[in-house]
Design a protein that fits this description.
The strands form six sheets. Strands 3, 5, 6, 7, 8, 10 and 13 form a seven-stranded antiparallel sheet that branches. The chain has 253 residues and is α+β, with helices and mostly antiparallel strands. About 8% of the residues have low confidence. A hairpin with a 6-residue loop joins strand 5 and strand 6. The protein has two domains: 31 residues; 220 residues, Glucose Permease (Domain IIA) (Distorted Sandwich), CATH 2.70.70. The protein contains three helices and 17 strands. The structure holds zinc ion (ZN). The site of zinc ion has 5 residues, from loops.
Length: 253
């Protein structure tokens, strides 16, 4: 016959076992498995006007200062938000392949996943980028190749109406980036299941791209910043030769 003590031990062991396997089974992009924010302020090139970040990666607040709900990544922002008028062309942040698109749920909207190989970026790892709240489902087919700076979708507010933002919604781009050493992936709903992958601050992608060109800038105070490489609306890249760009074209002044 079970003693109370044996029963107690059984329950605890079973509980720990279930927790452990539940953690293993959860898709990486839902676990809150994310790297720290870069902590470095982004700066844009002189003589160019760009859309700046409305809510940075890792932020516990939305662009309007309200608190993010705890049930997504523990209340921390898993990407960056750019406030945009609907229908703004969105650019491939690097060359790559379309790996997934769809109509997401509330808070997600229409989405697009691109996969960027090391030869696309010059990095030693694979990058998976996700664009959310798109105006419509992108026309690009799964498997289509895209080149850096190519228009891949248009911004919208899908998935933002009816909740915190009310009936008007919040037109913006939410961009998140997953870092992985693997090219194999599976998708589950709108999630990308990639072994050993984790969310990184998209600014780190730009930081890495800069360091490849040795263009990292020191401000007079000695504090590091991240200079954002971008494409201008007239089709020029800054700095020239950059293989990674801001997801929205910037205006030459
Ligand atoms: Zn966001």
């Amino acid at each position: 016959m079970f003693s109370t003590r044996a029963l107690f031990i059984f329950i605890v062991v079973t509980g720990v076992f279930l927790l452990f396997f539940n953690a293993l089974a959860r898709p990486p992009s839902r676990t809150g498995n994310m790297a720290k924010p870069s902590g470095l302020p982004p700066v844009f090139p002189d003589k160019i006007r760009c859309i700046e970040i409305a809510s940075p990666y890792g932020s516990q607040t939305r662009y309007d200062g309200s608190r993010r709900p705890k049930f997504r990544f523990g209340g921390y922002h898993g990407g960056i938000d750019l406030s945009l008028t609907e229908g703004t062309p969105l650019l491939a942040i690097a060359s790559g392949t379309v790996v997934k698109k769809g109509e997401g749920e509330q808070m997600e909207g229409n989405f697009l996943w691109l996969r960027h190989a090391p030869e696309d970026t010059g990095f030693s790892y694979w990058v998976y980028s996700k664009y959310q709240h798109l105006q419509s489902l992108p026309e690009l087919q799964i498997g289509a190749k895209v080149i850096v700076g190519q228009v891949v979708a248009y911004s919208g507010k899908t998935g933002t109406t009816g909740g915190h933002y009310g009936t008007n919604g919040y037109p913006h781009l939410h961009l998140s980036t997953l870092k992985s050493l693997h090219d194999e992936y599976q998708t589950k709903g709108s999630n990308m299941l990639v072994p050993d992958s984790y969310l990184i601050d998209p600014l780190m992608i730009y930081h890495e791209a800069n360091s490849k060109l040795k263009e990292s800038v020191d401000t007079p105070s000695g504090k590091k910043t991240i200079t954002i490489p971008c494409m201008t609306t007239d089709g020029h890249f800054w700095p020239p030769g950059m293989r990674v760009v801001w997801p929205v074209a910037c205006q030459p002044r």
